[in-house]
Amino acid sequence: MEKVGIVGYYQVKPDLDAMMSPPEMIFNAVRGALDSAGLKRKDISTVIGCTNDYYDGKTISNAFKVDAGGAYMKDESKVEFDGAHAALYGVFRILSGNHKLAMIYGYSMPSCFNYEAVRILELDPTFDRTVSLLNSYSAGGMQMRAYMKKFNVSLEDIAKVAVNSIKNAAKNPSALPEAQRSDISVGDVLESEILCSPLRKLMYPILCDGTAAIILAPEKQSLKITDNPVWITGVGNCQDTYYLGERDLSISTSMEIAANKAYKIAGINDPKKEIDIAEIFGHTTCEDLILAEAAGLCEKGNGTSLLDGGPALNPSGGTMSGLTPCVCGLTRIIEAVKQLRGEATGYQISGAKKAVATGQVGFCAQNNILYVLEGGGN
Amino acid sequence: MDKFYDGLENKKFIASKCSKCGKVFLPPRKTCGDCFAKAAEEFVELPETGTVKNFTVANYRVSERRERKLKEPIIIGLVQVDGADTAMISEVLNIKPDDMKEGMKVKVVWADRIKGHPKDIKGFEPIGGE
To answer: Which of A195, A196, A247 best tests the B interface by mutation, with the highest count of B CBs <10 A?
Structure first.
């Protein structure tokens, strides 16, 4: 695969209630990304947004974001999965040879809708939605039970991973302030409210308003824009069945397939040794482990070993730094880019050369996408 | 799904079967993802008994309108009805959360008023009425 460069990025600081209109949020992210790369709106040739009609309460939700997204009179489209999927669309656009600069943004404002309630609309309307028992909490609880049982992992071990993520979030200036707790302990996590057993509240991210944007360019164009691009050297995506009753929830076969595709394209033979940074989008701390294991970053059932060595698991705090639907996968890419460019001030992993960043959509991560990212030579 | 709903109206589980691999789906499916074959040409009636494959004790209930904390937790399970190859989501009734175990044998509890609707399945309870 020809390399695609990430030449600019911007994250609007997440907020429980941003007190900004959606166009303002998007404008700030897109304007910020352009400024970060020293570019102007006229340089953009295609814009891909990630928004969701249900979250926005209207159909064709991107129609109202055109001006704020920099897409006025330009090639524009939308993805309704995760921001990481919007980035894939942008990669396609760049690799087609028809575009020299792709602006990718993601946006949602959970302060304006109940995320958990809206997720019910993701359910199969002929049965699951009608019985109304499946939701983020119950699915997360059953996934966690399956994982703990299959691999004999204790609640304490998963709590340790949550503590690690929350402490990492405390060092990340782009994290949601309410998610930052440097003094958190395993006991705090274990004693936090049980949402759906065995899932604890402090193993589940805090929903927040946010926007983020990245700019993609072909290799030659990237090098004209910056001497410090981050390269997308591989990407893979895979879709599992919707039905939880048909899946082994303790593992993620779709992530395994997605990761293997991406590694093959990027020429990664041993991700455990070659990858320095893993920015994983898990809906729960347990899902972080399942996805990291499926991505081959450690042995299956041994995700907690990532706390002791190997690729750094979510140095940004991952989703425990705040979860904004439609944005989270893009944030994972941005956090990996920061590490590879040496711009993760306060939580920089020294010598980071290669990273993976993941996105997902669906209950228990039905659809997974994984990027292999490599530093440009800082 | 019509046959499934009609079955519920008669207090029966009607599952669909993949025309190629023979996998039995409950709730029924039109197609088998793995075989990419039709899965709604053959239907089988399954018994009222099954196994709890996974469960969670839920302190929250979420509807299309809101999430709310429950005064008393409910037990949500993935129940695989005997003869099916897939599990379906259902409540597990008449058991204390601490007594729940995966692999537990259960039988269906039908709703008082049957309407040919997924909610006709009130839940499943342990066999032996523990």
So the answer is: A196
Q: Which CATH architecture has domain A4-114+207-225?
A: 3-Layer(aba) Sandwich (3.40)
E strand spans, chain B: 13-17, 24-25, 31-32, 37-38, 42-46, 49-62, 67-81, 88-92, 105-110, 121-126
Q: Does the beta-carbon distance from B57 to A194 stay under 8 Å?
A: yes
Paired sense of beta strands A75-79 and A46-50, if any: parallel
Overall average pLDDT of the A37-58 stretch = 95
Chain B residue whose CA is closest to A140? B56
Strands B121-126 and A4-15: unpaired
**Phi-psi category of residue A15: left, alpha or beta, with phi > 0 → left and psi -120 to 50 → alpha:** beta
- At B130 the pLDDT is 47
> What pLDDT shows up at residue B77?
98
- Residues of chain B neighbouring A146 (CB-CB closer than 8 A): 54
Q: Where are the domains of chain A?
A: 4-114+207-225
Residue A377, pLDDT score: 54
- Cα(A374)–Cα(A358) distance, integer angstroms: 14
Does the ipTM surpass 0.85?
Answer: yes
Q: What is the pLDDT of residue B90?
A: 98
CB atoms A196 and B91 under 8 Å = no
For chain B, domain boundaries: 2-126
